[in-house]
Amino acid sequence: MNIFKKTIFSVLLSLLVIGNVNADKIKIGTEGAYPPWNSKNEAGKLIGFEVELAYTLCRYIGQQCEIVEQDWDGMIPALIMRKFDAIMAGMSITAERQKAISFSQGYADEVASLAVMKGSSLEGLDTPAGINLTKPNAAAKKALKTLTGALAGKTVCVQTATIHQNFLDSGDVGNVNVRTYKTQDEVNLDLASGRCDAALAAAVAFSDYAEKSGKPVVLTGPTFSGGAFGNGVGVGIRKDDTELLKKFNAAINKARKNGDISRIATKWFGFDASM
Amino acid sequence: MDFELMINSFPKLISAAVITLKLLSVSLIVGLFIGLLFAILRINKNSIVNKFAYGYSYLFRGTPLLVQIFIIYFGLGQIEYLRTTFLWVILKEPYWCAIIAFALNTGAYTSEILRSAFQTIKPGIIEAGKSLGISKKIIFYKIQIPIAIRQSLPAYGNEIILMMKGTSLASTVTLMDLTGVAKYIISTTFKPIEVFIVAGGIYLFMTFIIHNVIRLLEKKYKFN
Fold first, then answer.
1. Residue A77 and residue B192: Cβ atoms within 8 Å?
2. Residue A131, CB-side half-sphere exposure with 13 Å CA sphere
3. What is the mean pLDDT of chain A?
């Protein structure tokens, strides 16, 4: 009987301890399907720029972290429903999202681009190398006009609930046929199969896919930044969680100063995408 | 609760429900033909024909609809040879891929429903027909099929409702059906509860209609 009591006591005690540890842990949600930002290795373990950065930031905050997986289209609702406390999932800071959640300062930035299969009629568009849509200059406006003409009646594929979908829905490039997918993987598959005339996503998402799959996917048109594409990628945090927001901002400052963000970004992107 | 969002999203969801109904009705009609054909093959005495029909229903009832729709849409899209054939005209469109998957799936279940209905017909009824000198063909078309359809109505009504809910998987292959549009609205408003309540209500209403139509038919064709 005594052993029995002891066992129960120790189980209860350990539950209590585990409970306390969990309370101190910061839970961070990520998608695990958007390389090189975040993805999974063959063993199913979460890897990528943001996974490594998250652990680094938590070290600066001085708290334990747990990274949890969440489908992209439910990311913001899951944060609001307290499934986790922060989002690090290649999520760009946009005015639309800021209506629902807060963002830390940006930690990385990376341009978006259209991609097509080699030999497509959309290859080699006459546009500048990159355009910024925050205050579009004459060259940017001209590029948008060129794109409007080229993409008329074409099917352009994007991942759902992304800045890329917002941009196409905004009408800046006229009336294109927008097709939305749950993951970037599915966008890549349908681009390769020929169901999509073009796809729009982070430029590295396509180069990563081209490299890994060996498919002749090429970038076309200008790279996009600003405007609907937001102001860099930051940590998404609930609006009422100002304490955590401060912690993350301070940690990002420290990590930037010590060169951690640049180092990790260069490791995963092949170039310094930090900001 | 954001009631304004619920009211605003209602018309968009209603027009998306039309696409859901279109997917449902086309795949049910095609599925019914497939089901009837395979039910007849199932009761065939030839064991090869019988096994073939059984294999079809086993395959489509034994795998999830989501897997079937993914294989037809993403799987077949990866076969380069297929993309050079005329089949690609159909398989290129998510709409037709969804219809093919739904029709084959509901066809498998319908074939089982009809087969069991055929087998529950009492031999006495057929023998009565034979003793009156009615030909085998007329017995089949005028006696067996009507009885089988009446027998299978409750189970088939169930299948229609299951299929209606199954069409929500069309959103996984980019179709903007009721679920697809609900997800789209959520992606810009980040309020899943409100939008899914409205979408769920519309699904419930459609179930209500289907359920009552089937009940009416059951009453109409009741045996005395």
1. yes
2. 25
3. 90
Q: Specify whether the CB–CB gap between A21 and A37 falls below 8 A.
A: no
A103: amino acid identity, one letter: F
Contact A123, A146 (CB under 8 A): no
Please give the helix or strand (H or E) that residue B173 lies within, else none.
none
Q: Domains for chain B: give ranges and CATH numbers.
A: 3-220 (1.10.3720.10)
What pLDDT score does B216 carry? 94
* Least-confidence region, from A29-33, A182-186, A239-243, B219-223: B219-223
* pLDDT the model gives residue A21: 46
CB contact under 8 A, A195 and B190: no
Q: In chain A, which residue's Cα lies nearest the Cα of B73?
A: A190
Interface test with B, best of A91, A94, A195, A238 (most B CBs within 10 A): A195
Nearest to A63 by CA among A243, A261, A266: A243
- Beta-strand runs (E) in chain A: 26-30, 39-40, 46-47, 65-69, 86-87, 102-108, 112-117, 130-132, 155-159, 177-181, 198-202, 217-225, 233-237
Q: What is the DSSP code string of A209-232? A: HHHHH---EEEEEEEEESGGG-S-
Is the confidence at residue A19, as pLDDT, over 60?
no
Q: Which residues of chain A lie closer than 8 angstroms to B172, CB-CB?
A: 182
- CA neighbours within 13 Å on the CB side: how many for A217? 30
B218 Cβ contact list (under 8 Å, min separation 6): B153, B154, B157
Tokens 């509860």 belong to: B193
Query: Does residue A5 or residue B8 have the better pLDDT?
Result: B8
d(CA A198, CA A217): 10
CB contact under 8 A, A77 and B190: yes
Is A217:A206 a contact under the CB 8 Å cutoff? Answer: yes
CB-based contacts of B130, cutoff 8 Å, min separation 6: B136, B139
Closest CA to A54 of A13, A104, A116: A104
Contact at 8 Å (CB) between B41 and B113?
no
Q: DSSP character for A134?
A: S
B75-103 pLDDT, tens digit per residue, is 998 888 988 899 999 999 999 999 999 99
What's the DSSP call for residue B143? I
Confidence (pTM): 0.85
Residue pair A173/A147 in contact (Cβ under 8 Å)? The answer is: yes
Encoded tokens for A144: 């948008």
